[in-house]
Amino acid sequence: MHLIREDALVCSALEFLPTELLPLLFMDAFHGRHIKTLKAMVQAWPFVCLPLGGLIDLPHVGPLQAILEVLDVLLAQKVRSKRCKLQVLDLRNTGQSFWSMWSGASTHGFSRLGMAPVAEQSSKTHQPLAPLKIYIELCLKKMTLDNFLTYLLRWMEQRKASIHLCCKKLTIFAMPVENVMKILNMVQLDCIQEVQFLKLYHLQDLYLDSPSFLEGCLDQMLRFLRTLLDHLAITNCWLTESDLTHLSQCLNIHELKGLDLSGVTMTDFSPEILCILLEQVAATLKELNLEQCGITESQLESILPVLSLCSQLRTFSLCGNVLSMAIMEKLLSHITGLINLSDEFYPAPQESYSPHGILQLGRLAELRDKLIEIMQDLGFPRAIWLSSSPCPRWSNKTFYPEEPFLYQCYMSA
């Protein structure tokens, strides 16, 4: 208590104080807003983590500003002082166990919390200062950022090279998109473990690439949708058959214009589920991407009748799946009545490959010519791409137009 009252004594006394006293001293200095004491203690903090979130009183951010000023000094140093071990600033409201343990209110060992004081190095040399990690939970529920978050983010934005901002839980209630994007550009996105978007009353396009959290729980995400979607892309991830069932039952997809499920393996899915899903969107669907889905010929044959009902379809891709000439002929025949279909992307027929899986360009050219004959017999102009690459629209493969013009066929080796 004497040290708290006499700020000038702190700097000289900290070197001799037992580590066990520092958390108690820090709490008293923080709540009493003894700025000089706080600054001196942060510079000599003997723990890896400073769990500040449990102490912050948002209306009074003066102590936090003082701590950030000290961090500026530490970040500017090329080497770390002998006693200061600070590597993590935790602004989540999760540090009460640490403070209560040191105050005597808890009997849990501090080593379990990862808050144990770091042993002194036997060497007298200083250690390089690693990037500072800042942990925070963000809840964006106002149209504008509050003063605390505004100050913190502005401070961190100016020090991007020296700071890793980690946010494991992000909740978005209502905030302009430009503010959300600004914050996401600052956060280490691979740290985020939980997101829930709320009050997205104008959401039209939803793109989820390689989400690791959807398998078996897609329904939990779909139930929060509040608007009819125009475009939905769930790509390069694992989904269960029940996930696809929930998707087909979702009322918010009934007017979809674009559906992209590329990279979602469906080999073992019931073809009935695919039929039901396409039936829900047949009246409005303009783009359908089923690249690299492991679709079998029996599945494709089952969905052909409903596929032929997608009267607005303009772009359709099955690249990356294994299809024979026989099933491709059936496919072309069934969708010949789709007068809006302008771009079709298919894999090179299975017969184009040797028994060892090597693409035979001569054989591919023969099959291409046969497909052109089939399209001529069907009597409707088409533009078709054949490719051995999974996704010809974005690959670096070259496509060569072939005559006749009315029955275009493009081929990629």
Q: Overall pLDDT, averaged?
A: 81
Strand order of the largest sheet: 8-9-10-11-12-13-14-16-15
Shape: elongated
End-to-end separation: 79 Å
Strand content: 15-25%
Reported for the largest beta sheet, the result is: 9 strands, mixed
Helix and strand succession? HHHHEHEHEEHEEHEEHEHEHEHEHEHEEE
Helix content: 25-40%
Radius of gyration: 31 Å
Q: How many individual helices? A: 14
Taking pLDDT < 50 over at least 5 consecutive residues as the criterion, the unreliable ranges are 106-114, 116-126, 390-408
Multimerization state: single chain
- The number of strands is 16
Helix vs. strand class:
alpha/beta
Describe the structure.
- With 413 residues, the protein is an alpha/beta fold.
- It is built from 14 helices and 16 strands.
- It has helices at residues 2-5, 7-13, 22-31, 35-43, 62-76, 96-103, 147-157, 177-184, 218-222, 241-249, 271-281, 297-307, 325-334, 361-378; strands at residues 49-51, 88-90, 132-135, 138-140, 163-166, 169-172, 194-197, 205-209, 231-235, 258-260, 287-289, 315-317, 343-347, 382-387, 400-402, 407-412.
- The strands form 3 sheets. It has a 9-stranded mixed beta sheet with strand order 8-9-10-11-12-13-14-16-15, with helices on one face. A 4-stranded parallel beta sheet has the order 1-2-3-5. Strands 4-6-7 form a 3-stranded parallel beta sheet, with no helix packed on it.
- Helix 11 links the parallel strand 10 (258-260) and strand 11 (287-289).
- The longest helix has 18 residues, at 361-378.
- Mean pLDDT is 81; it is low at 106-114, 116-126 and 390-408.
